[in-house]
Each structure stands twice: as structure tokens, then as C-alpha cells.
Write a structure and sequence with these properties.
By secondary structure, this protein is an alpha/beta fold. It is 48% helix and 9% strand. The protein folds into two domains: 2-48, no CATH class; 88-285, Uracil-DNA glycosylase-like domain (Uracil-DNA Glycosylase, subunit E, 3-Layer(aba) Sandwich). It is built from 15 helices and six strands. Helix 6 (88-98) runs antiparallel to helix 7 and helix 6 (88-98) runs parallel beside helix 11 (199-216). The longest helix is centred in the C-terminal third of the chain and has 18 residues, at 199-216. The termini are far apart.
Length: 287
């Protein structure tokens, strides 16, 4: 209200309205109320504007504006190349196929930039044991100790695995291929918080583990745990699968309980012992 009264009094002086004492207080207030009803309840400029002086300005401004130039034909904008989606599994297949030995396969995995796990893991966990061994164990994924040491099965589960193998005369450190084992995992990098591998990770990194098996060329595969079975057999349910012989990549394979599972469920160690004896018998039957 105060700003509107100021606007009215200023306009009154600019346009030669009668002085306040001649117009009368009540008449002036009525005119101010009328302006407020019309919406003029706020001054929008710092100083009043002489609207009569502005009437001729639009005509003068229009006369001074040059004629508009004819519209030019719009030029074609250069096309921006769209990013091409990368099939990480296909890149992995090409890199794995190009590897001619275990050293070049390890280098190909280290150079593979499409798996986010490499950004959270401390280092690559490739393999351990004797590459010439008749038995190759495929686990699931590295854990904390494996991530720290860069070797598979070196934590509590790995220590239990070593005792299990020793019970049938096998050792990852053995030089004789008949008594040695070679160990790796489906995933070469540790998942955060030791979570399970995802189907996308298994599909992406699957070509590397298959090439790993081809290059090591063991007589027998041991698939330890649900995710090793999922990655190599396309199914899981280790309590149902364990102990049953299947064929994987043209060679006999036996699913077995993961040692980490046996640490949680020690009453199933008897079943694991049965599977170890079955492995030992199968080795003896293969020349």
C-alpha cells in the first residue's frame, strides 16, 4: 500500500494533478484505492515514468530499424557419432582365443577392461598349483585372503581343501602330475564383500576360464560349489549335483561341495569324503 501511494503521488505531480491540499485527502485516497483495485499496488521502477513522452517512441524506433534480411537456408549440422555398445563377452572370447599359452592368457585377462570387478579388487587371482596336473579344480571366486595374496584357495577354505586333497595323496605343490592339482576360479577378481558372482559376470568371464581349461588340458575337472556348476554346466543345486559324474568340455567332471560350505556345514564332510574317493577311483581308471 505504501509503495502504491508513492506511485500515485509521483504520477500526480508529473501529470499536473491538483495539489494534495486542493484535491482533498479523501478524494486522493479514493483515487489511490481505485488504482489499487485496477492492480497498481506496487511501483515497478525506481523512478516514475512519463507515459505521455513514451507514446511517440515506438514509431521513432520502428522507423530506425533496418529491413530484415532474407532468411538464410539453415546449414546442416555435422552428425555426432553415437557410442557403440560393446559386447564384453565377445571381446573376452576374442582375447581368450588369441592366447596361446597360460602366460598370454593371464596377460589377456589383466588387459580386459570391461569387468567392473577389477576396479574394486586388489589384484588378479589367476591360478595356483601345477599346470601339468591331471586334476584341475575350478572354484567360484576369490575371497579376502585370495585377493590379498593373489592365489586361489589360501584362506580357511583353502587350508581345508589342502587337507582334503592330502587324504587321497594329492597336493597342489606336487611336481608329479599324477599327484598334483591345478586350481583356479570362475572369476579372477574378488566380488565386493564376497558376494556371489552375477550371471552377467559369469557370462562375461566364461570365455577366459574355458580357454584356461583348454590350455591346461587336465584329465578331470572338479567343480567346487554352486557357481562353478552354474558357469560350467549351466545349472546349480550342489546338494543335488555333488558326487555325480558329468562331461564338461569333453572330459569327466565331478561337482563337489565348496570347502567354505563344509566349514559352515561340517556334517556334510562325510559326503565330501565319498566324492574324494570317487575322484581317486576315476583317476586310477584313466590311463
Amino acid at each position: 500500500m505504501h509503495r502504491a501511494r508513492w506511485a500515485f503521488s509521483s504520477a500526480r505531480r508529473r501529470h499536473s494533478f491538483a495539489p494534495m491540499d486542493e484535491l482533498g485527502y479523501h478524494d486522493a485516497l479514493a483515487m489511490l484505492d481505485w488504482q489499487i483495485e485496477l492492480g497498481a499496488d506496487e511501483a515497478i521502477l525506481d523512478a516514475p515514468v512519463d507515459r505521455f513522452a513514451l507514446e511517440d517512441q515506438p514509431r521513432q524506433a520502428a522507423a530506425s530499424v533496418p529491413a530484415a534480411a532474407p532468411a538464410s537456408t539453415p546449414t546442416a549440422q555435422p552428425s555426432v557419432p553415437q557410442p557403440v555398445a560393446v559386447d564384453a563377452a565377445e571381446v573376452a572370447r576374442a582375447a581368450a582365443s588369441a592366447a596361446t599359452d597360460l602366460a598370454s592368457l593371464r596377460a589377456a585377462i589383466e588387459a580386459f577392461a570391461y569387468c567392473p570387478l577389477r576396479e574394486t579388487a586388489k589384484q588378479l587371482v589367476f591360478a595356483d598349483g601345477n599346470p601339468s596336473a591331471r586334476v584341475m579344480i575350478v572354484g567360484e571366486a576369490p575371497g579376502r585372503e585370495e585377493d590379498l595374496q593373489g592365489k586361489p584357495f589360501v584362506g580357511r577354505a583353502g587350508q581345508l581343501l589342502d587337507r582334503m586333497l592330502a587324504a587321497i595323496g594329492m597336493d597342489r605343490r606336487a611336481e608329479d602330475p599324477a599327484h598334483a592339482v591345478y586350481i583356479t576360479n570362475m572369476l579372477p577378481w574378488r566380488p565386493p564383500q564376497n558376494r556371489d558372482p552375477t550371471p552377467e559376470e559369469l557370462a562375461m568371464l566364461g570365455p577366459f576360464i574355458r580357454r584356461h581349461i583348454e590350455l591346461a588340458d587336465p584329465d578331470i575337472l572338479v567343480l567346487m560349489g554352486n557357481w562353478a556348476c552354474q558357469g560350467m554346466m549351466g545349472t546349480r543345486g550342489i546338494t543335488r549335483l555333488r558326487g555325480g559324474w558329468v562331461e564338461v568340455m569333453g572330459r569327466p567332471a565331478i561337482p563337489m561341495f565348496h570347502p567354505a560350505y563344509l566349514l559352515r556345514k561340517p556334517h556334510d564332510k562325510a559326503k565330501a569324503w565319498q566324492d574324494l574317493l570317487s575322484l581317486q577311483a576315476r583317476l586310477r581308471s584313466i590311463p
